[in-house]
Amino acid sequence: MVDNCFLFSYHSIKICIAVIVVKRNSSAEYILTYLKANGGSYISGQDLSARLGISRAAVSKQVGKLRLAGYRISSATNRGYSLVGEPDRLDSKLLEAQNITCLTLTESTNREAKRLAEKGLPGFNCIAAEEQSEGRGRLGRDWFSPPGSGLWFSILLKPDTVTPAEAAPITLVTAAVIADYFNQTLKLPVKIKWPNDLLVNEKKLGGILTELKGEPDHIDYLIIGIGLNISQNTEDFPPGLRGKVTSLFIESGALQNRTSLLLQLRDRLFKAYQLFFQEGFKPFSAQWKKHSSTLGRKVTVRLAGQTVSGKAEDITEQGALILTDNNGAKKIINYGEII
Ligand code: BT5
Q1: Protein residues with CB under 6 Å of any ligand 1 atom
Q2: pLDDT the model gives residue 282
Q3: Which pTM was predicted?
Q4: Integer Cα distance of 150 and 148 in angstroms
Q5: 3-state class of 218 per DSSP?
């Protein structure tokens, strides 16, 4: 008797769970079907909520899920939603043929690059992912990296001719090459905020996370992780990031093919790193300064538990920031963050 009762309630719970799962899935699928049937025209949230028998808040939540899955859905006040594009996927076959490891999903391409480096993968290799589940910024911060909208990749290098101190400006070299590419080729005014932020109109388009394993006199490996927002709409970002971040699409109104963009950037970066290992930061200094949004400005830099304010005057050949503080004293700052 007790056993039967247990079986009965267990069975009911199972049915209940199944019903919830089907209902959740089908709401997003129905919304997608309606949006597709509407051929790019707007359909109101009220209309969708009436057709599906769910609240408007639930419609908005399901639209959010579709966006996270890579669907490009535009929303406008008093008009509703329209489907702008299907999920765009990196062409993994093409990338693999060009020696780029292309993963559908990974925690972090930097972590993946580290694993491969430890297993013996040589330098001048690139690892990209459609999506990162635990994309990271500096100091353990999160990096939002959904599928279908950005470039999330890491470059593995194993230089044997430079020390960690000599390699320090490689983040600035990376920023200079990317900013130059966006300015020259795509005519997008990308600026560099020392040391690792790529901005357009003061909003963050991308960032760089450089990690190194080695001893003071040699490098085992260097990993340069690059995150760039390419085809997102403003609504595709979590509310906490909106207003502070941007994408190539938001700024230019044009959709770029992420696969070819990645190939172009990888090739330019590889060439730049070869030159950097031979000649240091000097060949990149002018390029970096040209695109800098930091030099000539009053800034406050946070470093190891303290802040320093003053005018950002220049950078050294090691990529350190030269600042004249409010008492007129010159300071050289190797690591830190402008706040
Ligand atoms: C960075 O850190 O700017 C470095 C980001 C590097 C990401 C790449 S993606 C490929 C590789 N694999 C990884 O796991 N990471 C690298 P930081 O300066 O600490 O900035 C982090 C801050 O930027 C966060 O705290 C947010 O405020 C903001 N942020 C998060 N996601 C963003 C995004 N997609 N676009 C713009 N800003 C974002």
Answers
A1: 108-110, 132, 135-139, 141-145, 152-154, 196, 204, 207-209, 225-227, 229, 241, 245
A2: 93
A3: 0.84
A4: 6
A5: strand
Q: Closest ligand 1 atom, CA of 109?
A: 12
Question: Could you tell me which residues are beta bridge partners of residue 224?
Answer: 155, 210
Quick: pLDDT tens for 266-294: 999 999 999 999 999 999 999 999 999 99
pLDDT for the residue numbered 69: 79
Question: With contact defined as beta carbons under 8 Å apart, do 196 and 143 qualify?
Answer: no
Q: What is the distance in A from the centroid of ligand 1 to the CA of 225? A: 10
pLDDT digits (tens, 9 = 90+) for 140-190: 999 999 998 999 999 999 999 999 999 999 999 999 999 999 999 999 999
pLDDT digits 0-9 by tens, 237-247 = 999 999 999 99
| 205 CA from centroid of ligand 1 (Å) | 10
